Each structure stands twice: as C-alpha cells, then as structure tokens.
Amino acid sequence: MPLDHFNIAVPQGKLEDIITFLTTSFEPLGLKEIARPVPTVVGFGEKTPYFWLNVADLKEVDSKSHEAVLKSQHIAFTAATTEEVRQVHAAALKAGATCNGPPGIRAYYHPGYYAAFVVNPVLGINFEVICHDDASR
C-alpha cells in the first residue's frame, strides 16, 4: 500500500530554518510549502501536502533525546531523472548540508538505483534523493 503522508516533529526554534532548507534544496523536484493550517504545522508537496513538519513540545521530551531521534531519521525523495538527483544534491550542499554520499549508482540495491545523500544542517536528518531508472541514461 502506498504511503499517503508523514510528519516530523521539530523544535520551535528550528522550524523556519528547516522550511528554508527544504524549499531551497528540493525545489528541483517541485517540493514547496503547500499548507500552514496553524503557525506550528507546515505541509509540503508538489500539488498536495504529504510531508509535514510540526513543532514538538520539548517539555515532554528532553531536547537531547529528540535530537538523537531526528539524527537517526532517513527520508528519501524520488526524482524523475539523474539530473534532478544532481541538482538537489548541489542545492542542498549550497544550503549548508553535508554530503553523505555523492550522486551515483548504488547497484547493490538494484542496477538502476541512482542516488545522493545529504545531512541537513538544521536537524541532522539524512536526506536521500533517488532515481530508480532514468531512461535517458
């Protein structure tokens, strides 16, 4: 069954920074802010929101534990072409991300698996952009 949407909880002081990183880095894929139903909840997508951020209440969870959970996350976005993978990787690095794997084939997953990985400078999340098969290659 396909995934409809998902959510990440972020600290209040980091919300605008992660919004800026996402809209800057993933613009080549068409990702943009779609909805902000309340000031502490933001939905992203191309046409409808499927990736949500909400402000975490760190009174219930200490900030070190929350930070460890965020850094253990891996989120992958699909690209239509290998060029889009390269564009997102370059945009993310320009936005302050750290390279966690340059654009290239990852044949150990499958022969057409072309991906790049970056660690977000705001929350430490490992983001991947992947093209499973680019017929233009």
TrEMBL record:
InterPro entries: Glyas_Bleomycin-R_OHBP_Dase, VOC_core
Source organism superkingdom: Eukaryota
Protein name from the UniProt record: VOC domain-containing protein
TM ranges: none
SUPFAM superfamilies (UniProt xref): Glyoxalase/Bleomycin resistance protein/Dihydroxybiphenyl dioxygenase (SSF54593)
All copies of domain VOC, residue ranges: 2-132
Signal peptide: none
PROSITE patterns: VOC
Organism: Lachnellula suecica
